[in-house]
What does this fold into?
Amino acid sequence: MRIFTLSLGLCLLFLSGCISTPPPHYFTLNMNPSGRAHPVVNFDIESVEVAEALQREAILIMASPTTVEYYASEQWVAGLDELIPRKLATEWSPKYEDRPTFGMILSIFSFEQIDTETGAHARVSIGVTIRQPRQSRYSEPLFEKTYTSAKPTKNDTVNAVVEALSLCLEDIAYEIATDSRTLILNKSP
It folds into this structure.
């Protein structure tokens, strides 16, 4: 009888742990193009470097300037090294055969929710290095810049944060497209 009671207790303890774990909810960026970004060149994203804190599947929250948290069950459907280039390529599409093509390296520094006294905000910071296509990463770049965008969310839900992150990327895609004009003026391939 004692063994049965002990076994039953262990089973109930195990089941309560399984039941209390919330199922994961998966999120992706809004891949619909905004229609705002019109680069005068084509970009081939050759590599993407993601900050270590952003390499987890969970969505990052800056709870304070020194505290990092992650949502417990809200996760990206794929890595940011896949989602962010897809969103940028969508913003810059289509590619045109008559335009020069440049290689691009992305460095994702921040892609997160920031908790403030006024509510949640989204922040994205991406370093961009542009080179001739397939050029060594150690060669002199044609262009380097860090782009940052931040937006308040409509409310404090994960859906609102993800939508604001998508809008931040649209702003950055627009800025890169605008800056692409200097590639043609200064150094075309």
About this structure: The chain is about 30% helix and 35% strand.
